[in-house]
User: Fold these one by one.
Assistant:
Number 1:
Amino acid sequence: MSDRMTRLQRRPRILGALAIAALVVAILPVVGRAADPDYPPGDSGYHSYPEVAAELAALERAHPEILHVRAIGRTAEGRPILLAKITDGANDPADEGEPEVLVDGLHHAREHLSAEAALDLVRFLVERYGESSPVGRRVTRLVDERVIWVVPMLDPDGLAYDLSAPVRPWGPGGASWYAAWRKNRQPIPGSSAVGLDLNRTWGYRWGCCGGSSGIPASENYRGTRPWQAPEVRVLRDFVLSRIVDGRQRIRTHASLHTTGELVLYPWAYTRADRGPEMTRLDLSAFRLLARRMAAQAGYRAMQSSAMYPTDGDMIDWMYARQRIHSFTLELSPARGAIATSDRYYLPDERLPGLLRRPRAALLTLIEAAGCPWSLTRAASQWCGTFADDLEGGSGWTVDPAGTDDATVGIWRRADPRPDGLQPGRVRSGRDALVTGPAPDDPVRDGTTSVRSPTFLIPAEGTTTVRLAWWLGLGAGTGPGDGLTIRIVAEDPAIEPQVLLAVAGNGSPRVARLRNLAIALDPRFAGERVALELIAYAAPGSGSLEAGVDDVRVATEPESAG
């Protein structure tokens, strides 16, 4: 292996003024901190934090039309956390609404290969873009149709410590140049220990289930509260910033780790395969996509907890709170497959082969952002014009016209209770849009409405709206009490289409889940529309409850005849 200087000379070194300025900001040492250490000569094929910053700056200079690099926050020791954005028109502030993908590396400091794989993905995408080869055409299409975000190093503080530590014994095979450090470098108040495990501090099921440690000296220390690590807060805040018009733009995600050659999917905190928060459809989508990525990389697919349970894990939070189809990729061979001394610190001569294997899997993940359910049998319905299982906050607007006058039973996403007016179950998962989940908050004396995000109806083909619905009516309800579901166009000149109108007849009505499937009128072709739900109760009448779940709008092309 050549020495470090020769290696650096092989990399792009000609930077424009803007790239140089960005690089200086990125790697400028924090006051009182020594310069970041480099890898030892024998592992010079790996990238230290300043080298990652330099390579990203050089790639941005060479490919400014599809790559933009910026810092999204700082680590515990003050290093900027760098984010690469890859898409056509990467510097264009205009938002085209394209599906988005997030990939992150180096949650854990000693997992050097994870940072290399994240950087390799950036390099591969920008350098193959525009090529006429089959791979180049695929990359070009994905970059043009997606927004791909990559954080190569979430824990550069931990990496710097790992590289600066004195040589220590590491198994019978010899010695390691590194500290075998896992956590960040955050001081722990009241303890001489340092660092939190960044993949145990996410705010879903934090500390719940024996999958982390409350002991500061432990490698899996979770801290005293969720979100305690600044690096995790930075990445969380970026993910939350991708909620646009109430809908999360990031659709798929991979967190890169070592070791094991695995593709892992939620849940990490429990061995239960689904639980109330995951729909059967999502479980199927997770399994099918994980198996495909694993086959492409030569890995194995499994539920994360099958490796070992972890709580406060990133992929659980990404799915449970953001409905992002999130995976952990364990990149290098497992314990027993190689010498213990190499389990985290593989020789750099092996990098080309180790980096090549997950590339196809990551391209598949980027492709799947268009529709994470594309491999399932339900793809024709769920990969259409608009789909929402109502399991996450997804941009529905209560009282969109500002004319509602109901004071109880307002529409919201919730788990309905079985009380006669609510069925006590939903079509899938746990939640639905309901007018009141508890027995003491039905709609009375007024109207409550809620409207979906807008979506574009294709100009050609037959568009069908499908959903599950129910309506429960109490004693004393009549024609002035009921539920209306309609399609409303952004263009006020286009009359709404009523899809469902159900009213009382003086008799009680027990809520029961029903299916609706109805074709849209051709006047909506090529128009932006929204689905609107209206529940209404006449003054002095009885009470009612309504709900809607599993909304799907799909367009079938016209038959050739």
Note: DSSP finds twelve helices and 24 strands in the chain.
Number 2:
Amino acid sequence: MAITAASVKEPPKALGKKMLVWAIAAVVVLVNLYADACMYLNGDIVYPLLDIIIVGIGVYVFTSKKMYAQRYAFPSVATMIAFIIFPLVYTVYISFTNYSGEHIMTVDDAMKYHLNAVYRSEGGDYQFKMVSAENGRYRLVLTQDGKSFVTAPLALETGAIDPDAKPVQVALKPAIESDTAAQAVSMKELVAHRRALQKLELVIPDSSIRLGMSGLRQFSAESPKFSVIAKGAKTPEGLEVNVERSLYDNEEHKLFVPNMETGYYQYANDQGLPEGKTYAPGFRANIGFMNYTKFFANKSVRLPFLQIFIWTVVFAGFTVFITLAIGMVLACLVQWQFLAGRGLYRVLLILPYAVPSFISILVFKGLFNQNFGEINMFLEMIMGPIYSLFGATWTAPEWFTNPWLARGMILIVNAWLGYPYMMILCMGLLKSIPDDLYEATALEGASPLQNLRYITLPLLLKPLAPLLIASFAFNFNNFVLIQLLTKGGPDIIESNVPAGYTDLLVSFTYRIAFEGNKGNDYGLAAAIATLIFILVGFLSLLQLRLIRQNADQRV
């Protein structure tokens, strides 16, 4: 009897394992679909789409035998896509939009907002009073020129009302004498129900007039201010509509169109194009390279960026140099065989590395306080008498208001935070240098400086090079230090965007995105972040190339 593949049954253990895998995959898919549906209902599209793609690929990888080898690499690849590549691509996309604190809505949301606007139309104003009815309900009695109308008993809520809720239409009927003679509730009770009253739309019998609350004692005839008019149609004045999502102003009898360049609705000119005053709320729109041209063309934005860029490079480079110098010297000292208590010194010198950096930064912020800090008090005790000998008065350094002193303070604090790391690295690398080299140079009469120059430094810098690049990159984006110590101050007065003398590029971008005077400018911040990515990538490639050339020359 021939045995076919179809007649071979899987062992119960393998079948159970396969069913378990599919069960886990089904649970993962269902949970993610539920989360994606919730995000989609909240208006998010990009994140649910990304999640569906990653989860779909993941299910295929972990359930297909052909992709068995890829299971080990998929988690890292998926994480890189979700947390590195996607944010980078999304940031580049935002840089081509006008997304900001004033342009959060979509154009459809902005259109809906304008469609909710009303204006007082013919029908006049009606004085009203609210009277108590049975079961905690209320009636509204409206009066105009001897005519009176009353509503049925209404259950009016107190407190917050959904601003997006549709108006509630309530029919009016002619009032009788008992209605007009009823005692009105107190003003306090009326104000408590004001939000619910504002959502009422009262309909006069045998009429198309709609009444809306226009004051604490008044309802007025209201009509929709705007109505939708399709592209290609013509206004009553004969103007052809050339823009999608256009509106017609029923009160002003003008065409109201969205401007996709400014991100606002504006009234149209004789050619049907938007011009003149802009009307909030703004909406998101693709504006091409406008953020980049704004950056390069606007001097008040470009100059602070260049100044902050130079300072960032100097800060990161000098920090790496000074921490390496201090760490190397201390590593040599604590490994000096004639130094007594070397173990204790090692522990004491490494302690700053064990303390959380934010605690050290806040401690230094207090120490450098211009009025009550211990550093200025110490300097006053030392320098005050010296200055008085020459008939002068000692002035305490203004660490947080003087640009150069603020930068010096940041370098001092960062050197304190960074030298233990370099010291630990150098201590480990120094032990890898053979003692025979130093013994041979001692026979030749070499000095300690010659040993440092020709033996220690060359043998340390080569293995340290990748770590120095990593340290440079870390300090290039050292946001925590700047935010906790100076918050970028003192500010650059000549700049039209939030910028300070101690800002790094990363804090400069953060301040533009979240601390702008005219709304958070996410689009401009994304453009600057994109430029930062390009600059950092270029510097990293340049450093790697220089290191490779130095290595080739040594060989």
Note: The chain has a mean pLDDT of 86.
Number 3:
Amino acid sequence: MAWISEDVIREIRYRNSIEDVVSSYVTLKRAGSNLLGLCPFHSEKTASFTVFPNTESFHCFGCGAGGDVISFVRRIENLDYPSAVEFLAKRAGITIVQDDRDKERMQRRKRVLDMNVEAARFFRSCLYDPKLGAAGMRYLSEKRKLDPALIRHFGLGFAPNDFGLLTRHLSKLGYKDYEMSDAFLAGISKKNGKSYDYFRNRVIFPILDISGDVVAFGGRVMDDSLPKYLNTSDTPAFKKSRNLFAMNFARKHCEEQLILCEGYMDVIALHGAGFQNAVATLGTAITPEHARLMKRYTKSVIISYDSDEAGQRAADKAFKLLSEVGLETRVLKLDGAKDPDEYIKSFGKDRFALLLKDTKSEFDFRFDNILKKYDTRLVDEKLKAIEEIEGVIAQVPSAAGREVYIGVVAEKMGISAEMIRRDVDKRTRRAQKATERRETERLIAASQGIGDRVNTDFVKNPQAASCEEKILGILLLHPEYLYEMKKKDKAPSAEDFFTEFGKKIYTLMFEIDREYFDISALGSALSVEEIDRLQKLQMSRTKLANNKIELLYELLETLKHAKEKSELSLEEIIRRKRDQKKMP
């Protein structure tokens, strides 16, 4: 089932206590025999993230995340199961003996990383070749005015306008066409089956991960042709939703603050001007994984996106995701320039440093954008602006915060604060009622399995599925029951379960042929969401007095009847349809 023996997994977990590992990411406080902290996976002001040292597990009562130390690392570091185990093994100084499947996975990753190093060297040599790289060097040095030391620092390169220069070079080094394609360095022609260079006639930006490995590349054209940027897609060594450009440099300078930019050139310009805490997303919009990565290294983020409409929309999304992970977020307003690179070239680094001290809050950012939309000299336009601003104020969770913003808007718009307060209070009450209604609807839907992404069959037969979850919860709490049932030949089969999720979990549990096991024994075969569900099922049983084996037998009998009822109903529907067809 797992690529690493369970004995090794147990040793890794034993030598990585969940309290020690979690406390390196989350500030924990003692609460009886447990520990409490603010959840690192969603934004909250009241601690609901609980670590249970006795069971070496964690659970967030706010967002539902839960599991063991491996599950925690999978989430916080955005890793798959094998990589999370490797991470913890390295932390504990444990050497893992890998089997063939894992060796193949690691070999693919290593080949991509080795290939990327060779490609980065090739692109760099092309840039410094007077014949091959003249256009690229001219673009970087003359048009973008980058200092030679900065070009070397970021390892910038150039891909000549040739369909086979890189692929021929890598072929001579022993790399196969399919490997180059695997690394997104080459495509395979559908006409003749031959490989061709992906990056052509572009300035190249190598992308390094936190460890300093070259994991990907970005390529920019030197004119107005499209696409402006070509970026490495996901490969065995790279996930664009989990990496930030220049984070390998910025992580040493960003404990207090990160500057989040849109593009490579903005980041390079900022680093060149001394702002080494700048990073950028990689040809994609900001993701929850990006937000969690930033949360690991900094306390606050300044959004420095382009001043155009697209940049402002992107900033709006960034505010939401960054606040969800609990990061203090502000936005930089650039007057007289489109982006940080242009601003520094026009006004200098000292003026930019002053801007960083005069950033705007999320409210100020939204307020300014609303005022840009409307001509408040006109009555109708002014009323529309006030109505939209009141909607923004109503979303502020703090009553004191709402009061402050009401005063600001009243003074700015020349209207009574009391009138704005009255409107905002109405909106707040309506929003609260809507939230309560949605929560009620969510609970009802959840009880019926509607929208269940983990157990998608739940909605087909909520009675049977609910019964299954109770059975699984008891077995997770008392795995010795299943061991005892198997010895007496009374254990149910996977086919006795109704949902595919129930069958999958029961099969995994059944295959562990011993009296004791925990959820971590199932980890290699499950997603973090599935582990969350199992943790929740187990914890729900700990709150109940009766978890005896007799109840388990009763639930199995109930499941049998619920499943039969569902099947009979289906047969009845089919029979009736047949009867209808026979009618004249």
Note: Residues 366-445 form one domain.
Number 4:
Amino acid sequence: MSQDSINNNASFIWSIAELLRGDFKQSEYGKVILPFTVLRRLDCLLEETKDAVRDQAAALDPETDEQIRMMMLSAAANAGGQIYNESRFTFATLKQQDAGQLRSNLVDYLTGFSPNVRDIFIEKFEMTEVLKKLDNAGSLWMVFDRFCQIDLHPARVTNLEMGYLFEELIRRFSEISNETAGEHFTPREIVRLLVDLLIANDEDALSGKGIIRRVYDPACGTGGMLSIAEEAMTALNPGLNVDLFGQELNGESFAICKSDMLVKGHDASRIAFGNSLTEDRHKGETFHYMLSNPPYGVEWKKYADPIREEAEELGHDGRFGAGLPRISDGQLLFVQHMVSKMRDDEKGSRIGIVMNGSPLFTGGAGSGESEIRRWLMENDLVEAIVALPTDLFYNTGIQTYIWILSNRKPGERRGKVQLVDASGEQFWKSMRKSLGSKRRLVPDEARAEIVRIYGEFLNGDSGYSDVSKIFDTADFGYREIRVERPLRLRFDIDEDRVAGLRRDEKALAALEKAGKKIPGFVDLLLDILDDMVGVAWMDREVFSEDMNGALKARGAKLPTAALKVLVARFGETDEHAGICRDKDGNPEPDPKLRDHELVPLKEDWQAYFTREVAPFVPDAWVDEGHVDPTDGEVGRVGYEINFNRYFYRYVPPRPLEEIDAELKALEAEIAGLLKEVVA
């Protein structure tokens, strides 16, 4: 079948959606047309063996084990996989029945499918409800009759061609449903770029006869990434066997993906339903290639408990031992989940994942995000990160990034990370018509150039300083050292402060408690403060000694707890005051002046402090008790990847004359509009 034939079939099926106008919203067209397309394909596939299946079903003992029964019936169907239908109906015989019975007959037909197919139509596509709505609208017979007119038998439409047809329908329905397109549909040029990067320089691993490669997507949506990965791999080696695995949380997307696998002849049981993070349906499995576009900025609060339990109980023996990101964004959970499924052999695994900017830099040293980045870098798993242009996706205009991970880096890439800034205008072009937030696309020639830059491991010193740079993994790390400065307090006793203390019930209660062994302590202390109005101290130790002396003169002693109340009430920071010291004579830090310095991981923190801090704040020191919990060294280790820092481009401001001329032109335009209003 030629591309024209595929487009013609897609256009014919697309035209059936016109029958739904007025009774269904445009965003609901796909919920009717896609399941009917799958249904027609399976009907054409199974029609020839219908009698054999029904004869086999009649011959089986009612007590036959269910698994054996399914094997016998699927063998009779001879359709590949466990697919059969033991209903008495086909599309051809349904058309011969009373039109008024079509809905009930179609339900009978659906329930006659093997359990794996029946689940798709009834539970995920909710097709019984679709049939009901079509019947109530008086459109059921027209839609059914139009589908009877297209022949989707494998002899006329191969599995590969059917896949193209199905993908084209998904694309069209996604385009007219912009409010949800981004949730279920990643732009195909982005998927192709991701796949090309994933298999770049991998011809040897994909060559040969009898080679099997396992591909997995933990958030597979409608299955587009899996399909394009298979297409690209088999283009390199037509004899390659590609086994596709996936899991999807959204019921409708899952149904579309599983249906796509069915119509292409894949084992649809490998597409699982559920949340990959909490219900790993492929537990214990490993894969050669993994790729995904997980949801951006989606909180994982509602299913946090099992994830936290796994992280705490299993640590690095589980999937989330590196750390847990903030509850508002679970992208890095998917990264860890995929890494846990890497093959531990000479072939290893490669991962391609599309994420927004948050996983690059969100979270400081010691945070979950930073610890995950640290784990990825210290285990040398990050091969490259590619920055994409903005406005590529249907439901968001934000910038996105493709991460390429590998546990079998070639020699020249070991210990290195390649950053590619493909956000420049040479890598995108504007679309003639926007689709939601999607205003740009990456053309084929730009995609090829990005893959070439990555594949040839081009560095800035090769003339690509604005596009590609190579770094050591440690270049993204730093130590966050805590810089302290001494506490300096002055004390002023004035009437307002003393009056304020008399009104502060909480402070008075604290003084009462501190001096409970001294009769009339609070009144005695307030009298002393009244006598000291107008006195000031520039040293806390002298202030303490004077307060103690005044109390001793009246036969009392100042309790330590009472001194703390007085310091809090009358003390205030003053850079000219004396340094406050602890009982060992060491300076006390002022929490308000505490600061943190980020020292590059490759640099000695002491040398950094001597050069960058000490000359400007001579009284500062580093808190050597602020250590990293993993390596025990001074300063907490953090990792971040700041593209703007590495690919900063200075854009000079516009000349003042140009701005002034533009303002004058606007003023003249406004004045003209005002004259029209007045006239």
Note: Confidence is low (pLDDT under 50) at residues 179-184.
